[in-house]
Fold:
Amino acid sequence: MPKTQFTVHTTLSPSDVLGLLTDFGPDRPDKWPNIDDAHFTVHELGATTADVTEGNSMGWERSHYAWDTAAGTVTVDTVESNLWGPGSGWRYELTPADGGTDVHVVLTRKGNSFKGKLIGSLIPVAGAAALGKQLKSVLRKAETA
Structure:
């Protein structure tokens, strides 16, 4: 199962990063480059959980989000996807550091289609660099907002 991990630092506080990761409002597609309006649906939203479909024309997934404010963690488990199967998901750990937050990310992908398996094979090779750069961009945009 392809997996990668990386850590990104931001000047945002852990609570601000948690808020960014778990903000499922209508402007979410504006904040996250891999989400478009046509592939964004909030099915259910609770105090510490969400059931959301998000993605774009290339790939989408319905995921179950769960977060723990005290622990500084967000877990995103894939429920259904055109690319990824069960066992796929994201894990975020938020640690206060240097006047901001270190965001440690672990991504696990299990392709359920040819396209998913092909993209998944690139994750251990280029995933940390590409996804780390993308997350840095999202965080920098939030820092200046």
Observations:
- Helices lie at 14-21, 28-31, 114-144.
